[in-house]
Design a protein that fits this description.
Chain A: Keywords: Membrane, Transmembrane, Transmembrane helix. The structure holds 2 protein chains of 2 kinds. Chain A is an alpha/beta fold. Chain A is built from 1 helix and 10 strands. By secondary structure, chain B is of the alpha+beta class. In chain B, the strands form 5 sheets. In chain B, strands 14-26-25-24-15-22-23 form a 7-stranded mixed β-sheet, with helices on both faces. In chain B, strands 6-5-7-13-8-11 form a 6-stranded antiparallel β-sheet, with no helix packed on it. A 6-stranded antiparallel β-sheet of chain B has the order 16-21-20-19-18-17. Classes of the chains: A alpha/beta, B alpha+beta.
Chain lengths: 117, 750
Amino acid sequence: MIVINIIGLVLIAIIVWWFWLYKPQETVVENNEIMIEVKDGIYSPALIQVAADRPILLTFFRNDQNPCSETLLFPSLEISEQLKLNEITQVNIKALIPGEYEFHCQMKMYHGVLKVI
Amino acid sequence: MVPMTNTKSDIHLIIEGAGCASCVGKIEGALKATLGVVSAEMNFADRTVIVSGTAKTEELIKAVESVGYNAKPIDDSSETDVLDEKEAADWAYYKKLMRDTFIALSLGIPLMIYSIVIGEMTVETNAERMSWFMVGVLTFGVMYFSGKHFYVGAWKSFKNHSANMDTLIALGTGTAWIYSMVVVFVPDAIPMMARHVYFEATAMIIGLINLGLALELKARGKTSEAIKRLIGLQAKTATVIRDKKEVQIGIEQVLLKDVVKVKPGEKMPVDGVVIEGHTSIDESMLTGEPMPVEKTEGDEVVAGTLNKSGVIFFKATRVGKDTALAQIINMVKRAQNSKPPIGRLADVISGYFVPVVMIISVLSALAWLNFGPAPAIAFAIVSATTVLIIACPCALGLATPMSVMVGVGKAAEAGVLIRNGEALQTASKITAMIFDKTGTITEGAPKVTDIVLAHSKDDKKVLQLAASLESGSEHPLAQAIVESALERDIELLKIDSFKAITGFGVEANCENRVLLFGNEKLMKIKGVDVTGHIEQAQTLAKEAKTPMYFAIDGHLAALIAVADPIKPDSISAIKRLQANNIRVIMLTGDNKETATAVATKVGITEFLAEVLPEDKANKVEELQRSGEIVGMTGDGINDAPALALADVGFAIGTGTDVAIESADITLMRGSLHGLADAIAVSKATLRNIKQNLFGAFIYNVAGVPLAAGVMYPFFGILLSPVIAGAAMALSSLTVVSNANRLRLFKAQEH
């Protein structure tokens, strides 16, 4: 029983580490232009690093039938876009000051971060 | 749409049919050969091309077509096409979900019936092992064909260090299946009492959740009906005059300054100014104003409105995404996707929800294993699976956006444009409403209200002479008299020796008669006897009218009263607000008598007259300090400071001139009922959001512990994973359906 309990607690520790504590590597975008695929419940890449003070062009390609993936929101930038299925949607963002800008679907199940440095 | 940030006059095109890298050279070559193109660069990865220069979009499309590909401008794709494509895509997805449901339930239901009718699904003999193995393989087939999207989604999210609904479903059904297969393959590893298989749970959950998603998709379609209706207002084609010929083109190809022809029964394709013709136009779809509006040369027309009677030609002044309708659609879409502050807590919870449920699931399994009765392992598996399946982040996540979507759309249908979720929430809490008088409660344009004849017997002649005299003056009251004459088709006469006597009135000669128009003092100075009409003048003044005396050749001809009339429905709209316990306050720069008269007539007891613009802002602040949530309604630039300071600023549009960005809420028609509608729809939406959030919270807060088995020690109740799957599918469907109830909201007007 002790072993099972330890396994259970380790499992909980892994969940906490994997989903909350681990900081995955951002995809660094050289020319502030990147294509993001929306497929199978995620944005890929979801963590994007861009340079500050330069306009950013994000090209979303939605290849996911789930209606949740249709709406793309950048709440702090007051941007909302409808992503058309099997088509690209370009989002032009003006030059931003350094910081982290979240983007997600209406329900926050699809989630990404634009890290501006 | 986000505005393009390109500084050059770049045109973005999407190329269809470009399947190989060699296409790039061909397409770029064709574009560069087009007159006016400076550069053309194609990005093969996303099949887009950016063209710089002065060439027109349609010329570029032709160039691409000439080498065998199709091109579409990215920013100008017609909303109607997008809508059709979306509906087709949704329908295809709905059919796929229903097919998945059918496959999964075809196995799940017989297994469920077996478990209920025949008995326990246990593995004791080798024959049972063999047959359950076959069922296990069939269940795997269901997982593959009907539930693949859950597992792929869950795995991809997991790799991405995120978790979503797919994660929960994949873990729940996966655990049930793996445990069952362990029972089949190595039964000895499991205590005898716990040798159950849960294949029916896996198949049923996949079936029920797919069914829930399909029904939710249907219900979601209804939530965007308002925006569909607005998009549907757009005409698809336009008749324009090019090279002196009428040509029919798609509306996205209409250019600025194009001359557009619109026949009766057709919609205005873009915004413009009438240059020829006369007609009446139905603007009700945009403004909610039922009466058609007369339009003639020089008048503005707005895209989406309906030509009722004559043929008109107008010059396009705003096209594409700049038309008022496109801006309204854009604003409504943006507002529909914005969240009121009330939804933020749910947002924060959604971010942590899935991993927390996973932890609860592990803890629940551990609790059963440590403290549960035999067979503990079976109870642990059932409770862990049920916790994963019953938890529904979707209900929580959908609670706010679905209601906002319907509420904002509903408001737009009533001619009320709500800027964002925050304005929606604050509007629902307004306790005090400040009105500007002129142009808000009143029409804002003075009109002749009374002509009381004295010496003269012919009111038409009196008006003709008075208007002729006043045509020399620029005073707003004088303008009202001139307009009144013109409205009655009275021709103005030539006057001479016009003299304005500042502060008193005007005088001039006309048809050899001396005309005098002004106040009582002027009449006294000029020796005109008005004694018999002073009382009548005072009565008119008390009715918020400005009485003036008109004398011909030294004799009083008539008493003419001018007033800014109260809008016909201001009284009932103000009553509606007061009935909702909203404190109504009127502020005006006008004199006390007029203010008193107007306030009394519309039933406002609290008002301030002779107010300067900055005093309006001060009043807003004063009310806020006393704890009121203040709404401010105005139409003029001088109201801007007060509008900005108020908790919710309402701008009254005149229907066509939509100052979309200027206020929190824009009323597209002049009627104050729009205000009461805005507040009513905000209240209804907030109530709906609260119901949804409450339902979603309670569902999860009660469902998860129930699934973990907290009731078992007291009542012996442990939820089945199948029931959990059904409950989960129902929970998000309930949220969407409840939001859909808002569609039935009707403004209690008139």
